[in-house]
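Researcher: Next entry in the queue.
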Amino acid sequence: MIVTTKKAAGILGITGARLRVLLAQGRVEGAYKCGRMWLIPLFNGRPFISKGILRPGSQVEKCDATS
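Model: Structure for this entry, 67 residues:
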């Protein structure tokens, strides 16, 4: 089954804007753009989102609150 971004975002429980970011990053398996609209396939009833890569140094460092 193929769904649009609005339906896929609802299934995943995220906003449409966040899903469009994932689409732009190429992290939604099998998704393709048809004109201005993204079409997203469902695997077992859900879109498949691949894990992102956390780059070294991209984590927020904790500050030392004792000073």
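Model: The helical segments are 5-12, 16-24.
Researcher: Noted, moving on.
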